[in-house]
Every structure is written in structure tokens, then in C-alpha cells.
Design a protein that fits this description.
Elements (H helix, E strand, L loop, with lengths): L8 H8 L3 H9 L6 H13 L6 H8 L4 E6 L5 H14 L5 E6 L4 H13 L4 E5 L5 H10 L2 E4 L10 E2 L3 H14 L5 E4 L6 H16 L9 E2 L5 H13 L6 E4 L2 H13 L9 E6 L12 E4 L2 H16 L12 E3 L9
Parallel strand pairs: 1-2, 1-3, 3-4, 4-5, 6-7, 6-8, 8-9, 9-10
Antiparallel strand pairs: 10-11
Length: about 325
């Protein structure tokens, strides 16, 4: 379809069988328009190749029609999935996301947030991150804000997240149900909320099953494949007995599997592995990885839709997203 710069509001109104004022309201997003009518007008605009002048519209409305999206580690498979969902969620709304990278550093996050605020964004999406609750509350008072992948007390309607502790519990319990008792864990970043909650779920599953936690089976990590390699190497160098590893994410699991393979230790025949996130590659590694699926794309789309509502002066409700164990071939029974 070619863009048609000569298309007028009258042309769109005639095609959609609505008034010119209705078309104007849809274009400028100034007031609530029935969703069916809005869709009809948008379809008419698309069929006529009409593209509204965003700059002129922002001058008229006092809004930039852009949204700041602060992600962590652009290129991370998990955050890339969320960002794809964000793009999908803003599609057709007139809002354009502006992505910046917080790099899991609070200082960097605050810097890039100031950068996007300087662009006069209409709202803000924070994907994970380490911004303090005080700074979050200040931002929340300043503009519409949704946090993705992080649970904040009292923010139930402005957070999109999964219950990491419950999901980690289920993953560890799956190993226990398969007969494993010597279960190691390679953790994520120490201060990272997701990492802490996944560790808590691991510990609770052990306790509920009457298995005493062995601190020497708990390895520090940082969500990277390299930390998976280092964690396994540490276990082997100390001759620790273990039959399974719960990894803080899939990247850690990839590294752990590689380190075991290099030592001639077979997965899952000798050691079972479970990951967390369910990256696209996890179904195709050898062996296919049993892991916890986080609905990243759905989380991103839900966050974008909720932010649009907030920017339009409406309320939103965000339920806790469901994480689901994907059983593949990296876990074997112990008899």
C-alpha cells in the first residue's frame, strides 16, 4: 500500500460512514470513541493510505505520542521477547515506543530515564531493572508508568509479572518428583528480585519435601551462560555429589550443560537440568531443555495495552501472569 498524502479527513469520514469530528477524535485521540467505530476509522485510514502527521498532532494535543521503554541488556533473548510484545501492543494505537538500555545498572537506568523524559514521552514502561522504590514512586507521580517483570508491593495494577517463587518451586518439585534429592542451584544476580524469588522457591520445595538445604550446592551466578559453566566447574572441582541442577535462567542452563559435556557427563543420563524463561532456542538444544516458560510476549503486549489506558485517563487491571513448566528431555528419573 502506498501512502496517500492527498487524503483528507472528509475522504476518511466518507469511507468509514462517520462524521468528520469522529475521524478527528480518532486521529488526535482526544476523547473516548467506541472501539468498533475506532477500528472502522482506522481501517478506512489504512485502505486510503492515510498517515497522520504525528508532529502536527502532537502540537495540537500537547502530547508527543511516544512512550519510553527502558529495557535491560538489549540483545537479551528474554527481554527481546518482551520488546516484541510491547511493539505488538502499541501497534495501531498511534503511540511509538522509544527503546533505551538500562544495562542492569541503577545509575544507567536513571540516566536513560532522564533522556526519554527529556523527549517529552507520554508514558514509561520499565522492563525489570534496579530503580529504587522511591524513584519509582516519583516517576509514577509524574507520568503514566507500568513496570514489567517485577513485583512491587501496592502496585498490583501497574505491574506485569509472574510469580517467580511459585514457578521455581514447581521446577524444583519436578526434579524431586523424579527422585532427585541432591539438587544444585546456579543462581542469578544476588540483589535481583527475580533471582531472590527463584532461590526462595527452590529452598521451599526442598524444605516441603524434607530435604535439607546444602549451602555448598548453591552457586552464585549472574544469568549468563558463563556463570553456568563456572558453577558446574566449581561443583566438580569440589567433588560435590549432585544429580540435578536448577538454573536461574536458560542461559545459565546452556552453560551448565556445556560444562558437563566437556567433562563427559551426560544430560540427562548422569545429571538432569532445568532452566527458566523458555527461550526460543531451548526447544532445539541437545537435549531439548526442560524449563519454566515465562510469557514474555504476552507480558509486553499486556503492559503496552495497560499503559495506553493510563495515558488516556482510564484505569487498568493487570493479573499475575502464569508461568508454566515445559517438560522436554533434560530431566531423567533417579531410581
Amino acid at each position: 500500500m502506498q501512502l496517500n498524502t492527498s487524503t483528507t479527513i472528509s475522504d476518511i469520514a466518507k469511507r468509514a460512514n462517520v462524521s468528520k469530528s469522529t475521524v478527528s477524535r480518532v486521529i488526535n485521540d482526544k476523547s473516548v470513541v467506541n472501539q468498533q467505530t475506532r477500528s472502522t476509522v482506522l481501517q478506512a485510514m489504512a485502505s486510503l493510505g492515510y498517515e497522520p502527521n504525528v508532529f502536527a498532532r502532537s502540537l495540537a494535543s500537547g502530547r508527543s505520542m511516544t512512550v519510553g521503554v527502558v529495557t535491560q541488556k538489549i540483545g537479551s533473548p528474554f527481554y527481546d521477547t518482551i520488546m516484541q510484545g510491547v511493539i505488538q501492543g502499541f501497534s495501531g494505537t498511534g503511540y511509538s515506543p522509544l527503546f533505551v538500555d538500562g544495562q542492569w545498572e541503577e545509575g544507567t537506568e536513571l540516566e536513560v530515564i532522564q533522556t526519554v523524559l527529556g523527549r517529552k514521552v507520554d508514558g514509561l514502561l520499565l522492563l525489570g531493572g534496579d530503580v529504587s522504590i522511591g524513584d519509582l514512586n516519583n516517576l509514577k507521580a509524574r507520568l503514566p508508568l507500568i513496570v514489567v517483570g517485577k513485583q512491587i508491593a501496592g502496585w498490583n495494577d501497574q505491574c506485569v509479572y509472574v510469580d517467580n517463587a511459585a514457578a521455581a518451586y514447581d521446577a524444583t518439585k519436578h526434579l524431586i518428583d523424579f527422585g532427585h534429592r541432591d539438587i544444585a542451584m546456579i543462581c542469578g544476580i544476588k540483589h535481583h528480585q527475580d533471582a531472590v524469588r527463584r532461590y526462595d522457591g527452590y529452598v521451599k520445595a526442598l524444605n516441603d519435601s524434607g530435604i535439607e538445604l546444602d549451602p555448598e550446592l548453591v552457586l552464585d551466578g549472574n544469568f549468563s551462560a558463563q556463570s553456568g559453566i563456572l558453577g558446574v566447574n566449581s561443583l566438580l572441582m569440589r567433588s560435590k555429589q549432585f544429580t540435578a541442577i536448577f538454573c536461574a535462567n536458560d542461559m545459565v542452563a546452556y552453560g551448565a550443560r556445556l560444562a558437563l559435556q566437556r567433562q563427559g557427563i551426560r544430560v540427562p543420563h548422569d545429571v538432569s537440568i532445568i532452566g527458566f524463561d523458555d527461550q526460543a532456542e531451548s526447544a532445539y538444544v541437545s537435549p531439548p531443555l526442560t524449563t519454566v516458560r515465562q510469557p514474555g510476549a504476552e507480558m509486553g503486549a499486556a503492559a503496552a495495552a495497560a499503559l495506553v489506558k493510563l495515558m488516556q485517563g482510564e484505569s487498568c487491571h493487570l493479573p499475575v501472569m502464569h508461568a508454566e513448566l515445559q517438560q522436554r528431555e533434560s530431566v531423567a528419573r533417579v531410581f
